[in-house]
Amino acid sequence: MSAADQVRAFTDSALGRADSFHKKISLELFRRIVLRTPVDTGRLRGNWQPGAGVYETATTDTPDPGGQATIGAISATVLGAGPFVALTLTNNLPYATPIEYGWSKQAPAGMVRVSVAEFQGIARVTIQEGDRGR
Q: For a Cys staple, 42 with which of 33, 58, 63, 86, CB 3.0–4.6 Å?
């Protein structure tokens, strides 16, 4: 194997690992947001919409009290995204923002802010687990 082939192989491997970490970290962050979303009817939880390179702007009337269908849709979008595509999660219901900022006794500290505050820990654990799997 030539030096150029070795550099190419290393680069491909490093980019693949980085993309894998990006997706795993996003999945965990998004999962936490969904599961922290307070449930009355389940509509708020069911309105978390994933995007790959886009911000979704629609809403849905489909409730998802347990969050599993929403997490499944998120997983499909994230895992199906191309390498290093910006992954987004939006909730366009008009009461999502008030709930994020303390309107709900079920989630007085919000869903997104609490999860984002854990981002570095999520990233650290994901990378440690990935390094153990090498």
A: 63
Instruction: Measure the CA–CA gap between 11 and 91, rounded to whole angstroms.
Output: 36
Domain hosting 45: range is 3-132
Q: Tokens in use for 19?
A: 């993309």
Whether the CA torsion 17, 19, 25, 30 is positive or negative: it is: negative
Q: How far is CA 48 from CA 44, 57, 83, 129, in A?
A: 7, 11, 22, 27
Q: Is 90 exceeded by the pLDDT of residue 52?
A: yes
- Give whole-number Cα distances, 42 to 29, 50, 65, 85, in Å: 20, 17, 4, 29
**How many domains, the chain?**
1
Output the pLDDT for position 1: 82
